Each structure stands twice: as C-alpha cells, then as structure tokens.
Amino acid sequence: MLTTNPFDDDTLHEECGVFAIYGHAEAAALTALGLHALQHRGQEAAGIAAFDGKTFNVQRALGHVGDNFSSQEVIGRLKGHAAIGHTRYATTGDVVLRNVQPLFAELSVGGFALAHNGNLTNNQKLRRRLVERGSIFQSTTDTEVVVHLIATSLNNTVVDRMIDALRQVEGAYSCVAMLDDAIIGVRDPNGVRPLCLGKLGDVYILASETCALDIIGADFVRDIEPGELVIIDKDGLHSRHPFPRAQRRFCIFEHIYFARPDSVVEGTSVYEARKHIGAELARESHVDADIVIPVPDSGVPAALGYANEAGIPFELGIIRNHYVGRTFIEPTDQIRHLGVRLKHNANRANIAGKRVILVDDSIVRGTTSVKIVAMMRAAGAREVHMRIASPPTTHSCFYGVNTPERNKLLAAQMDIEEMNDFIGSDSLAFVSIDGLYRAMGKRSRNTSDDQGYCDACFTGDYPISLTDHDNGSGATVSRLAESA
Ligand code: SF4
C-alpha cells in the first residue's frame, strides 16, 4: 500500500509557492532554484514556463522540484529570458498533470502563462457561468477560471483583461503571470498570501518568500502590497493599484507554520515571530518542568522562545530522520501502526525520568500529538505537558491552505480538557489569540487595525466572502475545487 508520510498526515499543508523572473539568460535555471527553496509550500507537483522571444516553453511534472528540474536537459528545453514557476500542493487526493501550473493559454491577444497561490471562494459560481457561456475547462483547478475570465474579457490588453478578471474573483490570490513582453505579479486586495519583490543586479524577481531570493543571491526589495499589480518589462517595474482598497488580512498562519523560518514575510522574520509566540505561550501557561522539547521541525523556534522565557533547558528530545521519502511503502497494518517512528524518534537519554514540555505549532486532527505523547512516555518521561504555539484550530481555511473539514478538527469537537484526555498529556495549553497578536507586535486582537491578519481558522471570522460555501455547496471550495 502506498501512503503519504504518516507523520505528516496530521499537519496543515500550504498550497503553493510562486516565482517569476524577467531579463536573465538563465531564467529557467534560477526559477528552478527559487522553486526548490519554496518546496515546503507544495510538494505534489511543480512547473516552469519560459519565454524565449518567440515561443512559450512549458514543463510541468508531478513530484518534487529537484526530481524534475535539476537536469541540464530539462532546463535546456526551457529557453528564455523570462520565466515563471509554481510548486503545488493539491487539496484532493488525485494529483493529475492537467492541474499542475503554470497554466498556459494562447489568447487572442497573445500567449499567457499563470501561476497562483491561494484559493478563490467564488470559483464554483464563476465556473458555472463560464461553462454555461461555452467555456471548456481542461482542469479542475480554480486558477483556470481566471484564465477563462481573461480570455473572454473585452479589454484590449492582457493586463487590462487580467485586472478585469481579478475584479470578478473573490478569495485569496498571489499570482505571477508571463506575457510575451513582461511578467506580472499581483496580490489580492486583502493580501492574504505573501508575494515579495527582489533584485539580482538589474533583474527583477517575484517570489512567495524571501528564502527564494536568498538561494540565488538576490536582494529583497519590498513586499508587493495588498491589491497591487506590478508589471515588469524591458523598461523596468510599473506599479498599479487597480482594485478597491480593502483591509489588510495577511494569513497569520504563515508566521506560525507555513513560511520558512529563514524568510521575512510582511516585514517580520518568521523565526523571530515564532520565538515571540513561544515566549507568550510560556508567560501564559507556565508549568514546572525539567526540559522543553520541540516537535521538529516547525516547533523548534517556538520551543526556543518558550525555553528562554521559562528558564527551562531546551533539548532536542525528538530526532528527525531526514531521509524518509515523501511516500513510503508500508506492507502491513502492523507496520503502518509503527509509522510515526519512520520519521521521528525519541532521544531516550534526554527524556527518561524527566518532566517534559512538548512544544508544537498546532493541533489539527490530534493524531500526531497522541503518537508523540505516547512516544515520550515510552521513552520514560515522568510528565508530558503539551504546549501549542497557536490558538485551537476550530475552523477550516478557504483561502489556500488545505485544512480538514471542520468536523475533523479536534478543537472543533472538544474543549481543552477533552483534548488533553484524548492526547494523553498531563496538561495541554494553547497560546491565546491575544497572546498571538502580542507576539506579532499588536496589543491585542481587538486593537489590530488596517495592518491586521486573517485568523479565521482560530476565530471563524472570515474576512472574505465564502460565496461557494454559503451557497449551500458545503465544502466545495476545499473539497471539489482543487485550489492552487
Ligand atoms: Fe491563514 Fe487560517 Fe486565514 Fe486560512 S483561515 S488564511 S490558514 S489564518
């Protein structure tokens, strides 16, 4: 039986990273490197489209960037001075090539390639309307709706058509696109997903995170603003703000879990933010203990912050095996039952006889926490106290993160005491929503202003309409429409 990594089944998945570059002879090779740095944002598939002055060359593949875009042969086929790329995590089981991005279309106004991070919340409604008017969809990804809206727009230029299309969509998007004479970067008016601008010499780059700039030695210039559209062509960079102004609602989970800790997103170091959250957690939920142990890898910065604030030694009590592949063949139920140890094992010498504080970034279904707590006890821990560097995840995300449906979220079904019993820990505590905002430099959630965050998976306060969902299509956005 082929299954996904059993330790990751309980984690949230980001659903895409994007990268674009204009005006470099090695555009595709640099895009492949950028995507490699963004691999954590999507591991199911990747694609690159390049333009050589005459032809759009597109290569898309299932699997990791390194497995598909590291050979000279492949990169050599992607000739051109401009390129865009995409890494993808699909929300539903079947990952098929036709859904892999960048999407490419020959429009009446020229070739057009598009890569999208986010999720459109009126995708079903728009798709139905387009199909009724004759559009023939090739994929099930919501990104294709944007391509059809652009194709059917009556505006004269691709840029105006793209603006026209994006004015009709709802939801979260950070997109990069490529035309025959430019690349484009655009963020939705709330700025839910990240997109930054970098420079390598005179060459402009767009990327989901700054770690994709670092890998190619590019400098960070600035974040693309919410609602901003930038066009990069032979004359440089042109910025437009074509959408109605809206409140900034950057995904706070990017800071908690999704973004790489060496990235700086929205002016904040992800690593520092996670340490601050850990420190808040320690102030809010102190417990006497001998050691603080992170659940690797994403729990490490928060555990460091916790340990520093609490004055309790930080120890690596769980060791991660980095050589476990994304998939693993597990021949029997009995062996599958042991699956969690494929990737992580208790560092027994550190744990035996100790009172342990385990720090993790979040609890989704809770199955991973059950296994880790049991692992600590089997290694001889005297007490196991679970501390979570986010508030309870009580709601699903509809803006580009693959969360389970609400009835599968542990915190939507149980209170903290019940969760503690379920997990088997001696105590369980989450950072409060105000503590999370304090860690992000705000006084509290309520004092958050125009520089605010989306925190809907903790509060149910969805900042952008859920048109498909509210129309009675249930969880269509997350289940039926594969998002980018
Ligand atoms: Fe991020 Fe949660 Fe909002 Fe989704 S619902 S965008 S994961 S904060």
UniProtKB/TrEMBL annotation:
Catalytic residues (positions): C16
Binding site for [4Fe-4S] cluster: C251, C397, C454, C457
Pfam families named among the record's database cross-references: GATase_6, Pribosyltran
Assigned keywords, A-Z: 4Fe-4S, Glutamine amidotransferase, Glycosyltransferase, Iron, Iron-sulfur, Magnesium, Metal-binding, Purine biosynthesis, Transferase
GO-annotated molecular function: amidophosphoribosyltransferase activity
Residues engaged in binding Mg(2+): S298, D360, D361
InterPro entries: GATase_2_dom, Ntn_hydrolases_N, PRTase-like, PRTase_dom, PurF, PurF_N
EC number: 2.4.2.14
Keyword Transferase: yes
Recorded coiled-coil stretches: none
Record pathway: Purine metabolism; IMP biosynthesis via de novo pathway; N(1)-(5-phospho-D-ribosyl)glycinamide from 5-phospho-alpha-D-ribose 1-diphosphate: step 1/2
Cofactor(s) this protein requires: [4Fe-4S] cluster; Mg(2+)
Cofactor detail note: Binds 1 [4Fe-4S] cluster per subunit. Binds 1 Mg(2+) ion per subunit.
Residues annotated as domain Glutamine amidotransferase type-2: 16-235
Catalyzed reactions per annotation: 5-phospho-beta-D-ribosylamine + L-glutamate + diphosphate = 5-phospho-alpha-D-ribose 1-diphosphate + L-glutamine + H2O
Function text: Catalyzes the formation of phosphoribosylamine from phosphoribosylpyrophosphate (PRPP) and glutamine.
Family the entry assigns: In the C-terminal section; belongs to the purine/pyrimidine phosphoribosyltransferase family.
Protein name: Amidophosphoribosyltransferase
Species name: Lacibacterium aquatile
